[in-house]
Specification:
The structure holds 2 protein chains of 2 kinds. By secondary structure, chain A is mainly β. Chain A is built from no helices and 11 strands. In chain A, the strands form 2 sheets. In chain A, strands 2, 4, 5, 6, 9, 10 and 11 form a 7-stranded mixed β-sheet that branches. In chain A, strands 1-3-8-7 form a 4-stranded antiparallel β-sheet, with no helix packed on it. The chains are: A mainly beta, B mainly beta. At the A-B interface, strand 4, strand 5 and strand 10 of A face strand 4, strand 5 and strand 10 of B.
């Protein structure tokens, strides 16, 4: 296993279009996070899953954002009707909770540019 | 709401000197803390973690100190090298509840030749 994988690495889209990002976590990791990061800021929590269950979604997150993890493995993050303010780096992380270790391991991110 | 924050946005250190990066947290229920390093264009990389039942933990060239009384966390990097140039984030979690990990704003470490 080579770590957390995110696809695509870069996405340029026109305002109003829908985009979908994919994250493949480290095998057997039961926890999966999505974060958003803008320049000069720390990763901002968006949502997280325990296996296939979505545990929490940030109250700051617009209804245009939705995430799924249907089989408890890979996850997708969809943004509908993109806006310029959605331009950011979208980071996925995974961890193994319940067995003592809880640090999250991150992918390289998907950089979204909305034009 | 409660959040993790940092005292300094930028820290410049001479190569070979020790670096100390500080972090203040406000959630008294947090019991698990992590330091991450992020290089330009990459995702955050785990450095070291510490649980609230410890005051100090050492790794390779790095030491994390936790002062629960004043809700303060620090990362010490010994003999700073050019490869240490990055943004460093502290993060917190209520680990006993396996809760989510929340990040602070970060400190940029700049290494002077």
């Amino acid at each position: 296993d080579t770590g957390v994988s995110q696809d695509p690495r870069h996405k340029i889209t026109k305002r109003g279009q829908n985009v979908t990002f994919r994250c493949d976590p480290i095998s057997e990791h039961n926890r999966l996070y999505w974060y958003r990061q803008t320049l000069g800021q720390g990763p901002e929590f968006l949502t997280y899953f325990q296996n296939e269950a979505q545990l929490e979604k940030s109250r700051l997150l617009s209804d245009r954002f939705s995430a799924e993890r249907p089989k408890g493995s890979f996850s997708t993050l969809e943004i509908q009707r993109t806006e310029q303010g959605d331009s950011a780096m979208y980071l996925c992380a995974s961890s193994l909770v319940g067995r003592g270790g809880t640090e999250a391991f991150f992918g390289q991110g998907t950089r979204l540019t909305v034009v | 709401g409660e959040s993790v924050g940092l005292h300094l946005p930028t820290l410049s250190v001479q190569e070979g000197d020790n670096s100390i990066i500080n972090c203040a947290y406000s959630n008294s229920a947090s019991d698990y803390f992590i330091w991450y390093k992020q290089e330009s264009g990459k995702g955050p990389q785990f450095i070291i973690d510490i649980r609230s039942n410890m005051d100090k933990r050492q790794g390779q060239r790095v030491t994390v100190l936790l002062n629960k009384t004043v809700k303060h966390l620090s990362l010490q990097i010994a003999a700073t090298q050019p490869g240490d140039s990055a943004v460093y984030f502290c993060a917190e979690s209520e680990g006993n509840r396996d809760d989510k990990i929340i990040f602070g704003k970060g400190t940029r470490l700049h290494i002077l030749p």
